[in-house]
Specification:
It is a single chain. This protein has 708 residues and is mostly helical. Among the domains are: 105 residues; 26 residues, no CATH class; 138 residues; 160 residues, no CATH class. It is built from 26 helices and no strands. Helix 9 runs antiparallel to helix 10. The two termini are 107 Å apart.
Length: 708
């Protein structure tokens, strides 16, 4: 047990180290090379004894733990009981505190009430004392003898000044000598104003300055200076001239000229201009939205221009705010719902412009349709390029009108200008965006998108004969309209939204609209190119004969071959002539319908399909020597036609095709040399072989041997 206690006291406890230390302390527990020989029996006996000691120690410790746990539980119960008693004591103390707080509040209320009562009694008494002193001082002034110390003591000059100021205010409240004297002074001022006697007007105004009648004097002056001032047809110009004239003389009459001039301007705005504006707008407010908006824009512009002229005058500290409030007071009832009137008018006007155009064409608009079925058709058309629904004969009509577009853009331009002038700065971006959405609705969707849908429906199937392809005309006009639309976006909308979050919203909407239009244009162009290739197929099928390349009655006489060879070099087949004429016509039409890189992109696509058509067409025939020469001449003419595309890749394709056609006429001994030439060396051998197989003499052992 002694060993066990010592061994357990070492920290931290590690079982392996504990066993090692136990073995080391046991006699005979060391290694065979130690001072004592290793004795396993003795070591086993020591282990058994030590385990028994550990069991006894464990029981002793367990009893000690149980005793401590019981003691802990007992103390916990006592502590919980003590806490409950403290909580009860705390609740009692809190209740006493609330009662004390209520009592203090009650006493404070009583004290405040008593203070109010004392103040109510003391204040009138102080006022009465003050009034008595002022009456005493006033009597001294009336008697002409100043006896009070406050007036005779030079050290009390501030108190004397305060008393004199109060007596001055009291004097103003006293009735004027008699009302008749006041009226005489006003009449004298009026007469002097009519006679233009500035000095007399100044004298009378100076007398009335310290009395309530002074404001009446100013009112008379303002009223009389407006007599005969509005004789022209332009009330705004009359008002500007009136204010300029008054500004020159008001300083010679009144001691506060800026106040008098400001009052005149306020009178002009609130009476003359407000009544004029109301008369001009109320008449057409409900009956004629177009005239109402024009009048509102014109009147507001002229009013703000007048305000700018008046900014030159001295009207006090904040003349900008003063004039802005006057303008707002006139127009607030009209500006509150301005944008509703604007958008309502713009929608009805745009709808009328479009309807008038379609009526002139005797055209009833088809329902394009929206929703699930239409979306499904659109996705199928984009992926398969198939015409969905019956083809519509548009008789060459694009249903796009530059005149209509100009009218819509002009109406929108005027709306943007009115929006800029009449909208509150905080509402300007939002109002401009609403106008922009109307433009998108009627120009882009109701007009351009409808024309594209109609144009797509008018494209015939690729196997139609003698089909008239008008979609390129739609493309040409749509490109022109896009440029006009983009110009108005940059010139008139961008300045209104450039510094607001609406900018990104407008740019995103514009991007979506253009992408939608471009997708339909791409679809229409692709289907139009298919129709062009289909027309070429019909020409080739109708005009190209098998005997063109392998005459059935070919004469084997050498001289006849030579004559035929010379003629072949100078001519090409009728099918080639007609195809090339058709292609040149379509190339010219594409160049006229598009601009920029779009021309090259479309011409490249047409050139690649044109090459594929001719390549596959040539693969259908068998060629004699003379027929091969004719094929070379045809391809040479096709290559000449391809030069009009001005697309290097297309020309390279036809150069290679021309080189392939040489395999139809070259002597068998030279086939390998020709195939290893610059233009054919990089081609797949299967392509070369497919052309050699078209030769009429391909199955001859000699030719097969040379090409193998």
């Amino acid at each position: 047990a002694h060993f066990s206690v010592e061994l357990f006291q070492l920290e931290p406890f590690v079982a392996d180290e504990y066993i090692e230390r136990l073995v080391w302390r046991t006699p005979g527990g060391g290694s065979r090379g130690g001072p004592e020989a290793f004795d396993p029996k003795r070591l086993l006996e020591e282990f058994v004894n030590h385990i028994q000691e550990l069991q006894i120690m464990d029981e002793r410790i367990q009893r000690k733990v149980e005793k401590l746990e019981q003691q802990c539980q007992k103390e916990a119960k006592e502590f919980a009981k003590k806490v409950q008693e403290l909580q009860k004591s705390n609740q009692v103390a809190f209740q006493h505190f609330q009662e004390l707080d209520e009592h203090i509040s009650y006493v404070a209320t009583k004290v405040c009430h008593l203070g109010d009562q004392l103040e109510g009694v003391n204040t009138p008494r102080q006022r009465a004392v003050e009034a008595q002193k002022l009456m005493k001082y006033f009597n001294e002034f009336l008697d002409g003898e100043l006896k009070s110390d406050v007036f005779t003591n030079s050290e009390k000059i501030k108190e004397a000044a305060d008393i004199i100021q109060k007596l001055h205010l009291i004097a103003q409240e006293l009735p004027f000598d008699r009302q008749v004297h006041f009226l005489r002074l006003i009449q004298e001022f009026t007469n002097a104003q009519r006679r233009g006697e500035i000095s007399r007007m100044r004298e009378v105004a100076a007398v009335l300055l310290h009395f309530k009648g002074y404001s009446h004097c100013v009112d008379v002056y303002i009223k009389q200076c407006q007599e005969g001032a509005y004789l022209r047809n332009d009330i705004f110009e009359d008002a500007a001239i009136l204010c300029q004239r008054v500004n020159k003389q008001v300083g010679d009459i009144f001691s506060n000229p800026e106040t008098v001039l400001a009052k005149l301007i306020q009178n002009v705005f609130e009476i003359k201009l407000q009544s004029f504006v109301k008369e001009q707008l109320e008449e057409c407010r409900k009956s004629d939205a177009e005239q109402y908006l024009k009048n509102l824009y014109d009147l507001y512009t002229r009013t703000t221009n007048l305000s700018s002229k008046l900014m030159e005058f001295n009207l006090g500290t904040d003349k900008q705010t003063f004039l802005s409030k006057l303008i707002k007071s006139i127009f607030i009832s009209y500006l509150e719902n301005y944008i509703e009137v604007e958008t309502g008018y713009l929608k009805s006007r745009s709808a009328m412009i479009l309807q008038r155009y379609y009526d002139s064409k005797n055209h009833q608009k088809r329902s394009i349709g929206t929703g699930g079925i239409q979306d499904l058709k659109e996705r199928i058309r984009q992926r398969t390029n198939l015409p969905l629904g019956p083809s519509i004969d548009t008789h060459g009509e694009t249903f796009l009108s530059q005149e209509v577009v100009v009218n819509l853009l002009q109406e929108t331009k005027q709306a943007f200008e009115r929006c800029h002038r009449l909208s509150d700065p905080s509402d300007l971006p939002r109002n401009a965006f609403r106008i922009f959405t109307i433009l998108v609705e009627f120009l882009c969707i109701e007009h351009i998108d409808y024309a594209l849908e109609t144009g797509l429906a008018g494209i015939p199937s690729s196997d139609s004969r003698n089909a008239n392809l008008y979609f390129l005309d739609v493309v040409q006009q749509a490109n022109t309209i896009f440029h006009l639309f983009d110009k108005q976006f940059n010139d008139h909308l961008m300045p209104l939204i450039s510094s607001s979050p609406k900018l990104s919203e407008c740019l995103q909407k514009k991007k979506e609209i253009i992408e939608q239009m471009e997708m339909k244009l791409d679809t229409g162009i692709d289907r139009t190119l298919n129709c062009m290739i289909g027309q070429m197929k019909h020409i080739l099928a109708a005009e190209q004969k098998k005997t063109d390349f392998k005459p059935e009655d070919e004469n084997n006489v050498l001289i006849h071959k030579m004559i035929q060879f010379v003629n072949t070099l100078l001519t090409f087949s009728l099918a080639c002539v007609k195809v090339c004429a058709y292609v040149r016509k379509q190339v010219e039409k594409i160049k006229n319908s598009m601009d920029g890189k779009n021309v090259d992109t479309v011409l490249m696509e047409l050139g690649v399909r044109f090459h594929r058509l001719i390549y596959e067409h040539l693969q259908q025939y068998s060629y004699s020597c003379m027929g091969g020469m004719l094929a070379i001449c045809d391809v040479a003419e096709y290559r000449k036609c391809a030069k009009d595309f001005k697309i290097p890749m297309v020309l390279h394709l036809f150069d290679t095709l021309h080189a392939l056609c040489n395999l139809l006429v070259v002597a068998p001994d030279n086939l390998k040399q020709v195939c290893s030439g610059e233009q054919l060396a990089n081609l797949d051998k299967n392509i070369l072989h497919s052309f050699v197989q078209l030769r009429a003499d391909y199955r001859s052992a000699r030719l097969a041997r040379h090409f193998s």
